[in-house]
Structure formats: structure tokens, C-alpha cells
Amino acid sequence: MHVIVTAGHVDHGKSALIRAMTGMEPDRWAEERRRGMTIDLGFGWLTLPSGDQLAFVDVPGHERFVTNMLAGAGPVPAVLFVVAADEGWMPQSAEHLAVISALGIKRGLLVVTKSDLADPAPVMADAQARIARTSLGQIPAVAVSSVTGAGVPDLVAALDELCRSLPVPDPGAPVRIWVDRSFSITGSGTVATGTLPAGTVHRDDELVITPSMRPARIRELQALGEPVAAVSGTARVALNLRGLDKDVLHRGMALVQAGRWTLTDLIDVRITAASMGRAAGAEDGGGSAGGWLASEPAADNGATGLLGRAVTVHIGSARVVARVRPLGPALARLSLADPVPLHVGDRVLLRDPGSRRSSSWPSVAGAVVLDVAPPQLLRRGAAAATARQLASWPDTPTATEMLSRHGLMRASVLLAMGISDHPRPVCGEWLADPDYWRSLSHQLGEVLASHAAAEPLAAGMQIDAARAALDLPDRRLVTALAKPPFRMSCGALHIMKPAGQRGVPELPAPVLAAVRVLRADLDKAPFASPDADRLRKLGLDARAIAAAVRAGELMRISDQVVLAPGADVAAAAVLGKLDQPFTAARAREALDTTRRTAIPLLEYLDAAGVTERLPDDRRVLRDGAQPAKSLVSGEAGS
Ligand SMILES: Nc1nc2c(ncn2[C@@H]2O[C@H](COP(=O)(O)OP(=O)(O)OP(=O)(O)O)[C@@H](O)[C@H]2O)c(=O)[nH]1
Ligand SMILES: [Mg+2]
């Protein structure tokens, strides 16, 4: 299916054209038919000669209903631009063209109607020239009369050709359906209609209603009045939603796929094209963006700059008031009064309601969304720095740009911004800008060095303390940063010292002296670990012992048992000479030590895979087992 939206001045024959082609009545309201004027969106569809279906969204041309026009045009990729041969180019021709251009719509067809009333050629030439200066560029044109039927077959053929040339949207794209109409059917609940620009919806899918983010399941799905099991964009869809109260859904809300959109009320945008609200002259949507962000009022045309001003932002069928903070040339931050579901790269339309007073139509600008979660601008000069950064960004930012701005991001957050391609995570789903990651590693070094200087006896820096010092959102990031020269052990971070600096010199003199005494004892009786009383007398408290262990002067077997480094290798050698398997009592005898030391030492060797404990509590030395180097040195790396 294809979808095309009408555009053009009031009474130029848009609805008559839909009627002539489809036989359907786009003016749904009695009031519309009575007044002979479209007020709200209308719909109709036909099957093209190619067999494809084409749906029309018919919009009102009257100036008063331009917001309805915007709600219809927002999500549609192509336009049927209508100008009447008898009246020619008129104010809403200009305004609608400015809207189409601001939305960045690139495909379309010009139709000069009422060819039975006047020669269509001059109007066609004039309109084509104006259109050529916009996002539409050169488009084909057809002259028709809805009254005589002349040209209607040509129009259908031209539409067929246009539709064949439209890009096919990605059926796997995330779903966002802007609600343009909702109503309730007795007995069936609430129905929402909208244009599905891309992606696929299925019956029974669960979508989320913005801005409440309440889930809603699709009970029934229709496309062009027929029930379907699934439909892919581009399409007009009607969704019957399960268990929704009447009045829950309104135009401007969206039905979105959970996790794939960012609901945001703060965005950074690039103004792409502006049409100033002048009664004559800049009617073609191709004007410069500069005037929209000028900090001085441009007194000559009444087009006041938007510094700190309120504008109306239109996206899809939504309309929301926003305050503008200019950042730099053609760049601005918008604070939205209500949140909307956006992706980076989305196009939005800005209208300056104030200019209505000084002109016959409001000025319109297009903008692309560069960031949907911009960082706060706190420091002086932050806005200018932001503008310098954003100036180089493409209209559809990628992971590279987003990471360069945000430093660290979760992949799921990036996905909700509309970016699914990203570099390899640094850990879990965390993505990092390479430069930022390097700077974090550098900062970690500084933090650890100053911690070690301040607390020489501490057992390294706790991960949470390092996380807080670096202001990181997740402690796993600290672990991921702990690559050499940083090292994790026992839940703390250390800086590894170059080999020459290892060991004793790090210990304060009294600790060093006490350790020397202890080592002399252990030289004589290697498995006679000092008891608590002995340690106390030597002035070795838990911190001093931990420092000595890190310095490679002692080896910790358990909380209560310390021996000289290498005691595990020596023990394995002794135990290897015993008849296998052996009991703990036998091992204690052979090691010439107490049960207080023997049991933890055996358990240590079990854990290290040097010995194996059998079901009958005896042990065997594993074949070829030697304590691994890392276990021998214990914490000696720091
Ligand atoms: N003679 C002649 N009259 C036409 C033609 N097309 C439309 N009309 C008449 O022009 C009037 C306006 O037509 P609509 O189709 O309602 O115009 P519209 O563009 O939909 O107007 P809005 O929706 O209000 O913007 C109606 O009275 C139509 O009968 C045409 O090709 N020839
Ligand atoms: Mg109409």
C-alpha cells in the first residue's frame, strides 16, 4: 500500500479529486458537506492499474484548519499538490508548500484542477517553478477537471508511476503510529487510525501509548477497511485496542513499539529551512534558517528572532508548545511542554504563532532532531561549545556522534534513540566513546594513585569508591577499566607496580621490622603460623598484615593463618611424600604444625587444586599438581 496526502489552497478541488478517483467521500462530517469545505482529515483509497493500493489523506485547505492539515501530512511520504487553474497560486498554496518542504517530503505530483474553467498551462508553469525551489524539486504535473473527468485517467497513471518509484520502507523498522483519529464502537472498544510509515504491526501485538506509556494490545487490525493479520508500512491502519476506555486516545498521541522510542521533552535540533511569515515574497519554503534564530528582531519583515520565544512544534499528528534556546547558527534547544516519542534524525516542523499577527500566514521552519536526551548546559559557554559540536553532525546522527557527546551510553538507550548499529560494548550493554574511555582509564590511575598515597595500608580502593570518584553509572564499568596497570583483587582495585618496585620498600618501617621477625620465625618452622597473640605483640594488625601480603612479604592462607610466600609449594612437596591418600592428622604431623594451621592450609590447597578431598575426608595430591603461580604469589602483585 502507498499513502499520499493532499495539499493546496481552500476550494481548489482536493476533495473533489479524491471523490472523482475513488468514488469515496473524504468529507466525513455533515458540517463539511453542508459548508462544502473540508475541516478535518478525510480518507479514500483505490487500486492502481499496477494492482497496488493507494490511500489518500485529504486535508483542509482553509487557513484556520492548518493544524489538521499538519496532523495529516506529518507521517506521509508523498504529496498530491493541488492548485486550481482559475485562481492560481494562493496564500495556502504557499503555506502548504512551506509545510511540505519543512517536513522534508521529497516525492509528489502537481495537479492543476478546474481545467474546465481556465487554461491550466500558466498556473502549472508558475506552480512548478515555485515547487522546484523546495524539498520536492521537479515533480510531474497533470491537469484535470473533476467535473468533466478530463485528465483523471492521466492522473491515476501518474500516481501509479509515482508510487512505483517510492522507496520501500523497512518492514523491520520500529513502529510509531501517530493517532490522527480515534473513536469507540459499541461492543468493540476503542479504535485508533493513523499512517504507519514503516515497520510492521500484527494483530495481538502490544504497543505503548504515548505519553502515558500505558500498554495496549491490538485486538483487531484493519487496513483500508479490511481485517488483516499484519500490515507493513507505508499503510493506513485502524487498530482496535483491547481494554481501553473511551477518551483515552486522542490525536497527537502515538502508538509505539516498547523500548524503541525515546519519550522526551528536551531536544537539540538543526533548523533546516524556514519560510518567514511575510505577506509576499518568501512564500516558497526555501528561505534561510538564520532568521529563525536571530537574536535581534528583524524589524523589516516582522519576523522576530526566536530567542527565548515560544513556538509550536509539530511532529506526526502531535502539536506541542516549545521554548527555543538558540545554541548557534541554525542550532537550537527546544523545551517541549509535553513529551513526545522521538528518534534522532526525526524531522519536526516549527511554527511561530506570533507571526500570525503581522502576516497572512504563520511562518514555518523545518528542523531535524539531533539529540533526544541532550546534556544540561550548565557552564558558561556551554551553549557555544554544544553548537560547535553539533555543527559537524549529519542530519541523522550515528552511534559515533552520540557517543562523542554522551561518553557512555547503554545500547538500549541508543536503540530507543533510533540507532541500532554500534561498536562493541566495553562491558554488559555499555558503549563508550574511545577517547572518553581512555580518559576514564587515565582518571582511574590518578584516583588510585592519590588513594594509595593517602592510605598506604589500605587494601586497594573499593570498587564503589572508585565508581563514585569517577562518577560512573555502573560499578561494572570500574571492573572493565581494571585492565593492567590496574588490577582487581578481593573486590578492590590496585595499581600494579613495575617489578623493580615491588615488595618491601612500600611497607612503613615498623611494619617492615615486625615482618622481618615473623619471617625469621617461619624460616625455622615454615608451617608454624603465628597466633593472634604473637601478631599483636609484634604490632601487626589486620591492615598491616594486608599491606605485607600485598607487598609479597607474607602469604595469607585464611583469615587467621599467614605464612611465608611459597609455603603452599613447600607444603605440597611435603604432602607428596606421604602415602596417598592421607588423613588430615597425618598431614599435620608431616607438616609439623597445629590443627589450627593444618586445616586451613589443606583447604587452601584443595581450593587451589593441589590436593583433592575424598568422600572419606582423606586427601590425595593431584597428579602433577603444583600451586599455580598466581596462587603462590597471592596478592604479591601490588
Ligand atoms: N468546475 C470545476 N469545479 C470543481 C472542480 N473541482 C472541484 N470543483 C468545485 O470546487 C469546489 C471546492 O471543491 P473541494 O473539492 O471541496 O475543494 P477542496 O480543495 O477540497 O477545499 P477544502 O477542503 O475546503 O480546502 C466545489 O464546489 C467543487 O465542486 C473542477 O475540476 N471543475
Ligand atoms: Mg476538501
Task: Give a structural overview.
- The chain is α+β, with helices and mostly antiparallel strands.
- The chain is 30% helix and 27% strand.
- It is built from 20 helices and 30 strands.
- The protein has a six-stranded mixed sheet, with helices on both faces. A six-stranded antiparallel beta barrel has the order 7-8-14-11-10-15. It has a six-stranded antiparallel beta barrel with strand order 16-19-18-17-20-21.
- The chain is elongated and about 120 Å long.
- The chain starts with a strand and ends in a 5-residue tail after the last helix.
- The structure holds guanosine-5'-triphosphate and magnesium ion.
Question: Sheet bearing the most strands, described?
Answer: 6 strands, mixed
- Give helix % range: 25-40%
* Main structural class: alpha+beta
Bound molecules: guanosine-5'-triphosphate, magnesium ion
Strand portion, in percent? 25-35%
Spatial order of strands in the largest sheet: 2-3-1-4-5-6
Number of strands: 30
End-to-end distance, in Å? 67 Å
Q: What overall form do the CA principal axes indicate?
A: elongated
Annotation field: number of helices: 20
Uncertain ranges: 276-290, 294-304, 357-362, 499-505, 628-638
Estimate the mean pLDDT confidence. Answer: 86
Over all CA atoms, what is the radius of gyration? 37 Å
Task: Describe the structure using short key phrases.
20 helices, single chain, 30% helix, elongated, disordered C terminus, binds magnesium ion, binds guanosine-5'-triphosphate, six-stranded antiparallel barrel, alpha+beta, 638 residues
